[in-house]
Amino acid sequence: MEINEKDVILKCKIGDFGQFEILYEFYVRKIYKFIYFKTLNKALSEDLTSEIFLKAIKNINKFDTEKRFAPWLYSIARNTLIDYFRTRKVTENIDNIWDIKGDSDLLKQVDDKLNYEKVKGYMSNLSAIQKDIITMRVWADMSHAEIAQALGITEQNSKVIFSRSIAKLRDIMPLSLLILFIIKL
Amino acid sequence: MKNIELILEEIYKVDPLLKDRDTEVRKLVAALLETKPEVQIDEVFITNLKNNLRAEMKPQKAQLFNYIRLNTYRLAGSLATILILVIAIPVLNQYLQMQNPVLISEPNGKIINTTDNIVTVKSDNGIVSKDSKSNTVLAGFVKFKSEAEYKEYLQNQDYGGGIGGERMMTTDVGPIAISAPGVQMSLSNDGSSGKTIMEVAPNRVSDTNVQVAGIDEPDIVKTDGKRIFLAPQNYYYYRGGPQPMMEGPTIGVAPEIKIGGGTSVDPGIIPENKPKVQVLQAFPPEALEKVGQIMGKSGNLLLSNNVLIVLGDREITGFDVTDPKNPKEKWNVKLDDKNSLVQSRLYNGQIYLITSTYSNKYDSCVIPLFTAGTNKVTVMCDTIYHPSSPITVNTTYHISTINVSSGALSKKVSFVGSYNSTVYMSKDNLFVAYAHSGDLMSIYYGFLNENKDMFPASIIKKVAELKTYNISESSKLNEMQTAISEYVSSLSNDDELKFNNEMQNRGLDYFKKHKRELTKTDIVKIALNDFSVNAMGSIPGSLLNQFSLDEYNGYLRAAVTIGNSFGMGFGGVSNEQENDVYVLDNNLNISGSVTGLGENERIYSARFIEDKGYLVTFRQTDPFYVLDLKNPKQPKMVGELKIPGFSSYLHPITKDLILGVGMESSKVKISLFDVSNPTKPIEISKYSLDEYWTEVSSNYHAFLQDSKHKIFFMPGSQGGYVFSYENNNLVLKKAVSDIQAKRALFINDYLYIIGDTKVTVLNENTWEKVTSLEL
Known about the structure:
Helix content of chain A: over 70%
Number of strands of chain B: 46
Radius of gyration of chain B: 28 Å
Helix content of chain B: 10-25%
Largest sheet of chain A: none
Mean pLDDT of chain A: 74
Distance between the termini of chain B: 63 Å
Mean pLDDT of chain B: 77
Number of domains of chain A: 2
Number of helices of chain A: 10
Number of strands of chain A: 0
CATH class of the largest domain in chain A: Mainly Alpha
Oligomer: heterodimer
Order of helices and strands of chain A: HHHHHHHHHH
CATH superfamily of the largest domain in chain A: RNA polymerase sigma factor, region 2, helix turn helix motif
Strand content of chain B: 35-45%
Structural class of chain A: mainly alpha
CATH architecture of the largest domain in chain A: Orthogonal Bundle
């Protein structure tokens, strides 16, 4: 869907909610999925999505219309997630559910434990941006162009990082173990 | 599946080499697709949220809300690990060989160390360790020679954690230093006029709880005994509807704390909670009142004589607070959008700033850092230091200083590193450490070499050659995988099954043996007097936080955990963890070490006090280790105590008493350890607080000791607590419940408990409430 973001945002700044609604409809499900794939919990994802859009709407005035909206919105999403994880009783460096170790309460809330366990091994070996791009590409089915917008990188960046992440998953796991692991699935 | 074909096509377009391993890549992508979680979006939720948002939009006035920025995200309980490039000789010889050994020119070079065949030279270009016979560079920390070199270095690095222009994963400006007990800040005569109350000069004032006495760290509360400066952080949590800003947290849930720096306030909900710094007249307690404020600025504070420094998200401002009723802005330094504040310190009238920018090969060679007045401060990429051997870097650290009175900013030194950093400052040196993964190619090659019976000679030869190629590490790893994969696919089914089993068994054994090579922490030592890079070193593992480092008598002690999610994992099974303590000499070479502490556990807290070290590791029980560090060549673990729960903050009460604040069975626990006999540490007193959380666990600034009254203060989610440790016994002296306690400070014999919306003053002799002030 083609929307002239700049126009829409300029109108939002003067309080035209109808315009914000356009942005909302365009992004809310994407953001929700983005959050969901990192928390795997419906209630939490709804809470955080609400918080993200509220922050967006409150700060729309400060948004620089020369910039793109998606990276800004996704950065609010990321920050909100990190805040959330940070104030839980966990003490490791985490920015999503894949980084949590042990018997954390957060893991108990995962909607689908079975799949989580399978993929956790993969994910723990990737960097934050690699995790994001794999998630967005393979699960959220976003194109690299969309991913690039969301993360504020170029489309080429996204493709390269994605392919490197795949390569890295292979690098990190000794070949045969990788095969073994996949076969188990 | 159409989807998978599309994805594979994209991958191969970027990396055609992967096509050679189509089978595995296909399996991998298929596995990822298969494990995709089911997402069901509730349309009722979508509609409800839309309606809620509509209610939020109102005609706009200027909003002071500054949404949360990532720049102060910090690893919970840990600070940036300092990049220490230690030239640990035996370790480095193995695999820190440069791909293309070249002679590096060393203008004004002088030899600063000679050990065995290795000579370390310091020059204008940095530090280099060379094999004295062949002149091969073994390790170095040198400036980039050119923009091209800078870009090439970043060329094949991982984009670990960086996203566009966002500040990712940098450490919090928050609690950094732990104060040595009993340090008093010298009082200054501010000579202010316009007092309406007779001014009584206090004779005893507390400092922020810092790591090194005399080196101040930013915090939300500062005092000089006469005035108290507060930069309150506002809680903000939205659950589908507008919330009163000061809603208390549910029991058992940690409050949603705003990450330091910016405040997030909705003026529409509580108009008076805009970002600001409050100024209170503090003494005597009867005179406690609000006298002034600074509007529109908030963040952590530093105070030096009559200059109050506010360290915000995007800018640092110095205010003249000689007249507390009228703070005047003296100077202002703005951080460039891409520059994040990592840490800062105040020492000898200078602010030491550590900031970071995200390193990307697409960025320009001119990196903008600050705007100070009309002055734009930038750094050129060919003045940036880097380790000679390529490691994963995604961050460039910049050290600068700001003169407290004039605001003059001076950019000092910059170097690349990973985002996972720790900063520690002693009176002489600034140490910046960062963790990164080790040399995987060498590690794999080692495995092949040790298991020659599993692989044909041609493969081992090929991998040996690969190591010398001038291509990126990931490309080498790819090549190696291809070779092995081809071999495996040539085997019969029986042989393949056997091979896989052997790989599993021997692989696990091997990686267990080499776990100290998988993650390394490099440390850079920068002299405070001239900001020269004086040494660099490398140790295995990763640091927990700044307390994992301590400089004493010229030696740097470091406590690390080996084996964590940073390193290798086999299908989610992480390597068994261990913990080591290293003693590094003046040149950051390893002088001695104690290894293998707390098997299967990781460090939860560490504290070095003079010639002793204290370590808490944890899995199910909390071993409290006492280390004797008298002999830098032979540090040893001399005492151990196992108790349930763990401590995440260790505070030296006296030489023989260490206090531990942590958790046991989901409750906050305080332990008093008697370490007078280091071989037999005893938990002589213990208190279980009816709290699920205390800020002290993650922010030691929230802790305050008053050695005169033998008490300490800590906040919880339900209020603030004053404990006595008199007679080596923990006794809860006073609990203050009607306050969202954040900090405490003492002036003379009064304890001021600073909460979000009020300040309560207690008499330290009677523990009676003297007065309180609504903010």
